[in-house]
Design brief:
about 160 residues; alpha+beta; Alpha-Beta Plaits; two-stranded antiparallel sheet; 8 strands
């Protein structure tokens, strides 16, 4: 059974725009998965403590026959190929960040994976690309992405 999945993409190290373009090319190669669409790319101010370079962000719509954890494994392999080193700290600069934001209408909470992504509703750099892909998109709990975006500050986000 094919399922629709929305992925968030982000990078702020080692030529971020090129990192995202390479990631999109690699996502096309994931088995049993079709890349349906990619949002425009956005620049965004880094979130979290400390000084970091600005990010490049986007979202992608996939159709996949993979189960959620199998897709996560594929995405994390792409991150590793592009130099992503995972550590204990959150909100650090990275070559590539690929997040499963929505997986059909599922709600999943495991040690490795939370869907919908737990902080996506707080981030304009996640919601705006999702709106570009689907202006009628809603979360599994019924909240519309358009309404969530309307509640956020639009500063720190610009089209590339």
């Amino acid at each position: 059974m094919t399922q629709q999945v929305y992925i968030g993409l982000g990078s702020n190290l080692q030529h971020p725009l090129q990192q995202l373009q390479r990631a999109v090319d690699r996502i096309r190669q994931i088995p049993q998965t079709t890349l349906v669409a990619v949002s425009p790319f956005y620049g965004s101010t880094a979130v979290g403590p400390g000084e970091q370079p600005d990010y490049v962000n986007a979202a992608a719509l996939l159709e996949t026959r993979l189960q959620p954890h199998a897709l996560l494994d594929q995405l994390q392999a792409i991150e590793r190929e592009q130099g992503r080193a995972r550590g204990p700290q959150q909100w650090v600069a990275r070559t590539l960040d690929l997040d499963v934001l929505l997986f059909d209408n599922k709600q999943i909470e495991t040690e490795r994976l939370q869907i919908p992504h737990p902080r996506m509703t707080e981030r304009n750099f996640v919601l705006q690309p999702l709106l570009d892909l689907n202006p009628d998109l809603a979360l599994p709990d019924g909240r519309r992405v358009q309404d969530l975006m309307a509640m956020l500050d639009h500063q720190g986000l610009w089209p590339l």
